[in-house]
Design brief:
CATH topology of the largest domain: Rossmann fold
Number of helices: 8
Oligomer: single chain
Number of domains: 2
CATH architecture of the largest domain: 3-Layer(aba) Sandwich
Helix content: 40-55%
Strand content: 5-15%
Amino acid sequence: MEINDDASCIIDHQQQLLNCTFRHAANVNFPVRSQYQISLLKHIIKTLEVQNCEIYSGFYEVLCNLLSQPATNDSFLHFFTKTDSLVPLVSVNENVAVISQGTTGLSTWPAARVLAELCLNNSGRFDGKNILELGCGTGLLGLSVLRSCHPKSYTFSDCHEEVLKLVQKNIEVNYLDNDIRVKVVD
């Protein structure tokens, strides 16, 4: 991460950076993994120190709050499109452990992110289609398709009960238009 030497020392710019990331509504309501946030905050602070900048106190406040929270495996992943939007396309709750509760479906696989991007780049192919996803995991792919590709219906499926509970919660978090039929099946 590069920080512009001229602008980074300005407290207003640092405050804006903090507000657009760590204090952004998406992260406040659906926080990403705390260890990731802590690492990024430490990197930003260190970079500012190396540049002999006065450091905005908000960075330290957020860091202290994160360090005082109990460790958890649950976090959110925010999936953004390549636009300049500061609003995520989809936010999904996931477990950071690759294997949890006897399944790998409670964490988002990198392939789901790549396939979601591919679907978004070819959104017209899904308009008006009935789609069945086998092994839906956290629901990132399906929710991304529902937000951007306008299918007639989308069926999320998985063989693990905990995965289906998680995807149902993620559907609720991402509130979808009522004109789209969504099914969750095992």
